[in-house]
Amino acid sequence: MVTLTGEHLTIHKIKQICYDNQPVEISDYVRERIQNSRQAVESIVRNGRTIYGINTGFGKFGDVKIAEEDVNTLQLHLIRSHACGVGDAFDPVVVKAMMVLRLNALIKGYSGIRVNIAEQLVTLINRNIIPIIPQQGSLGASGDLAPLSHLALVLIGEGNVYYHNKPHPTEEIFHLEKIKPVQLQAKEGLALINGTQAMTAQGIINYIEAEQLSYQAEWMAALSIEGLQGIIDAFHPAIHEVRGYVQQCNVAARVKHLLQDSQLTTHQGEKRVQDAYSIRCIPQVHGATWQTLDYVKEKLEIEANAATDNPLIFDEGKTIISGGNFHGQPIALAMDFMKIAVAELANISERRIERLVNPQLNDLPPFLSAKPGLQSGAMIMQYTAASLVSENKSLAHPASIDSIPSSANQEDHVSMGTIGARVAYTIIQNVRRVLAIELICAMQATEYRGTNKMSTKTKKLYEQGRAIVPSIMEDRIFSNDIEKLTDWLEGGNFNWDSCS
């Protein structure tokens, strides 16, 4: 059980909820905080104070006063009109993270919702009733309005959900599970959709996958070093300590540890004086990616515990302030940074693949072919890696440098953070396939060198990899091999982060 308080929510806890299906709960003191905030909203409605989003229209309609008898209808219209997302649906695990994040933001007590709104979210999370939310349609400011409106639709019994991994109308599943739709009251619709939870949820799933990918890249690199009889001296701790980057030192230490008893590595001067950068600079390049991921993690965890509604209610309703915490710029920049950093893992991996297959750069069989000339071997696998790397270069173009005005120029600067987060996920998938290709080539090269000379740790990776993809004895449809290994890497069925 994970207890949500509006504070101290971590990526690790989100992983427990979204991947391990840990249930969530909210504590009694959180309920009291929510109730105090709600009383302030109800007082505003009774007293006729004009407060944005409670008894006014939205966006450019913020100057339109809404009659007391219409404030509840206003919220329903808001959700229905803003639920205009399009395109493919977010992955259910992303939406579940979105629900957890939205719940955590609402229970901070600055949004003015009733307790039953929070309880409805708890019920849906714990029963794995996941809203179907289109990916496209958010500008990443004024909140992730379109995606979160599709989430809010489900709370009121509308829209569609995944139930046991299959799509169903929400009404059908609510009837089956005996769940009553909530009836939105003043401010609650706005509270549900003003926030950055779509981009942050996608960003957190990105981080979880990118972290695993970064460990995997170190294992692939270690295997390639053995296939190329690389120089281990470049991983000596003294080199990295004098530069001072902790992440660089850690990568060097982990790779060195993976290769500690290998008989396939060499020392400077034995076969060559220096290796190419794609081997020699693994700690520097991979380490810089880890630096970026540390930055991204920090921003995501701050945002996971942030109040991103507008307006926000302070001092039990004495102070109500309209601001812009829904603007996604911090996450937009983090996602763009992540795109570049993760893409670099594929960039350097593809260069190692080239060194493994190019007969002008090694003493291995040309293109790792069993019968060079008659059989092409890994020749076109390198093409595929190069294509994916080139595609990533286009995808890594920052989304955050774009902005376009909306709501009749009232909302005249937006973050495009949700686009950045979605594209970052695509880059991660491409990088995983490049690493799968490197693994195929590195296994073939180490096999040629002699698997009995591999390190204890890389031998384990080789054996598991070979259980999925056999040795290249003859040309075959290598697309199948790449996809099988890609699925295996994504599944996380290997202790990639362990050097024990």
UniProtKB/TrEMBL annotation:
Residues the record lists as 2,3-didehydroalanine (Ser) modifications: S142
Post-translational modification: Contains an active site 4-methylidene-imidazol-5-one (MIO), which is formed autocatalytically by cyclization and dehydration of residues Ala-Ser-Gly.
GO biological process: L-histidine catabolic process to glutamate and formamide; L-histidine catabolic process to glutamate and formate
InterPro entries with a match to the protein in the record: Aromatic_Lyase, Fumarase/histidase_N, HutH, L-Aspartase-like, Phe/His_NH3-lyase_AS
Glycoprotein listed as a keyword: no
EC numbers for this chain: 4.3.1.3
Origin superkingdom: Bacteria
Keyword Lyase: yes
Gene Ontology MF: a single term: histidine ammonia-lyase activity
Compartment list: Cytoplasm
Pathway linked to the protein: Amino-acid degradation; L-histidine degradation into L-glutamate; N-formimidoyl-L-glutamate from L-histidine: step 1/3
Cross-link (5-imidazolinone (Ala-Gly)): A141-G143
Reaction it catalyzes: L-histidine = trans-urocanate + NH4(+)
Classification via CDD domains: PAL-HAL
Stored SUPFAM superfamilies: L-aspartase-like
HAMAP family found in the cross-reference section: His_ammonia_lyase (MF_00229)
Protein name (database record): Histidine ammonia-lyase
Gene (name only): hutH
